[in-house]
Input
Amino acid sequence: MERAERTKASAEAVRSRLPDDDTIYDLAALFKMFGDPTRAKILSCLQIRDLYVGELAEILGMNDSAISHQLRVLRSAKLVKGTKEGKEVRYSLDDDHVSKIMECGLTHVNEEK
Output
């Protein structure tokens, strides 16, 4: 088989296994959520334990409004969830996948340290 034929066959084999464009777009949007340091800090806090907005604000040295805004963004991306407790909402990671993504990312960035 000539090189051009091998290249074409190889490209087609890879192309046929790629996720569709909508899935790739959704994946890119998911990783974009992790691209903001404040959101990454909030997710790191919630890996340790479930917290209220005020607790997150105190830990991160920010105001409640800024934390609430980031939590809305994270909630819309299905990375965090809130559980109403009286007049307050306790936030947690949405599921174990979020924790695994964080763990893999931290392992990767700490490889050379």
User: Anything to note?
Assistant: The mean pLDDT is 95.
